[in-house]
Amino acid sequence: MKTLADFVKEKRRYVxxxxxxxxxxxxxxxxxxxxxEQGKGNLSLEKVNQVLRMFGHELAPVNSRDLAD
Length: 69
Hints:
By secondary structure, the protein is mostly helical. The protein is built from 5 helices and no strands. Helix 2 (19-26) crosses helix 3 (30-37). The model has no long low-confidence stretch (mean pLDDT 93).
């Protein structure tokens, strides 16, 4: 399974934009992109989703009981 950091970095490179360009296009600070790509914790789900929406994706909380089914 691919990590969030790997996913964002791979997609950004695929479309050929810099971290700064991704930050500008997604409406988040450059530090958010850097933290995501470095795999840092303690990120706002809303900020992460702003970035992921640029690639047609979104994260949502999952109930652990749903995973057991």
